[in-house]
């Protein structure tokens, strides 16, 4: 990719006990995108993020962050990254303002109260700036983690399970915050267990399993290429058995016998194989009365579950 802000080549990590967490990972993240990294527990998501951020030393391979090798030019690479960890680790008796300001100082940045104010306002934390962290709700504490990660004006933001344990309303508020950050030019990489989060927000999806990148694809292309569609045919009268004219369509019949389910690849149907037309013609020829039709497109979750099963 011509404008990659993160480039990972041949990245592997084997821990002291012999467990191989990453296997020859190649990945590029484009500047200004929201990239979602999906994978089951233990797939290597957090290890990959930690290796890019310089928190874990890879066994082999190279990571470039905005053009800087994250080993040879660690400081330059790391200051371009903001990391929001999964765990809520905050200084319980410190104020919101102080903890965010202190995080900026850790990166050697001079004080900039105007920037800290902008960050706190954008995360709806301004009214809480003088509150001690121990007094905040779980959702507010998570916002403070994001504010700390943004305190030194990074170009890249890693969000490791950003909405784990927060309610649905707050999750949607957080999605809006992430979109606003992307609109300001921040590149966002998030790991998530909530697949609707990736479906709602991501420009591209990467799937990791057993330490290997299974695929990387634009979200809409992924759903189009790997998605399946289901056509549910509601009948006027239940069928005791399928007529021979319908034998070639691999139909599933419900228990009552008054619905037929036809599954097909969306890409094939788009190419015009005539599957639905042929099915409706066969139903007509067999004298089966059709009451109604419903279609359903497989979700990103369906695709993800199928992919992980395939590569298990």
UniProtKB/TrEMBL annotation:
Keywords: ATP-binding, Nucleotide-binding, Transport
TM stretches of this protein: none
Name of the protein this chain belongs to: ABC transporter ATP-binding protein
GO-annotated molecular function: ATP binding; ATP hydrolysis activity
Signal peptide: none
Residues covered by the ABC transporter domain: 6-235
One Pfam family from the record: ABC_tran
């Amino acid at each position: 990719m011509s404008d990659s802000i993160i480039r990972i080549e041949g990245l592997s990590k084997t821990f002291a006990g012999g467990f191989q967490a990453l296997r020859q990972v190649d990945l590029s993240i484009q500047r200004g995108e929201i990239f979602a990294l999906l994978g089951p527990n233990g797939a290597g998501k957090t290890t990959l993020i930690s290796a890019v951020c310089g928190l874990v030393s890879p066994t082999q391979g190279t990571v470039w962050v905005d053009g800087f090798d994250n080993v040879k030019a660690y400081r330059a690479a790391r200051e371009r990254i903001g990391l929001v960890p999964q765990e809520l680790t905050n200084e319980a008796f410190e104020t919101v303002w102080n903890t965010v300001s202190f995080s900026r100082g850790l990166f050697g940045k001079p004080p900039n109260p105007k920037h800290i104010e902008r960050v706190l306002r954008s995360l709806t934390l301004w009214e809480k700036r003088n509150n001690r962290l121990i007094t905040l709700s779980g959702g507010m504490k998570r916002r403070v983690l994001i504010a700390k990660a943004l305190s030194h004006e990074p170009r890249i933001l890693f969000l490791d399970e950003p909405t784990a344990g927060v309610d649905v309303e707050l999750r949607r508020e957080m999605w809006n915050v992430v979109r606003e950050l992307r609109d300001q030019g921040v590149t966002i990489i998030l790991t998530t267990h909530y697949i609707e989060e990736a479906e709602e927000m991501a420009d591209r999806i990467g799937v990791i399993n057993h330490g290997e990148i299974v695929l990387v694809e634009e979200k809409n292309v992924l759903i189009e290429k790997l998605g399946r569609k289901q056509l549910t045919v509601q009948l006027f009268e239940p069928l005791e058995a399928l007529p021979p004219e319908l034998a070639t369509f691999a139909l599933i019949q419900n228990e009552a016998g008054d619905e037929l389910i036809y599954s097909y690849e969306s890409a094939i149907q788009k190419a015009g194989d005539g599957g639905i037309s042929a099915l409706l013609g066969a139903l007509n020829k067999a004298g089966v009365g059709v009451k109604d039709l419903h279609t359903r497109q497989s979700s990103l979750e369906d695709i993800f579950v199928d992919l992980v099963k395939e590569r298990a």
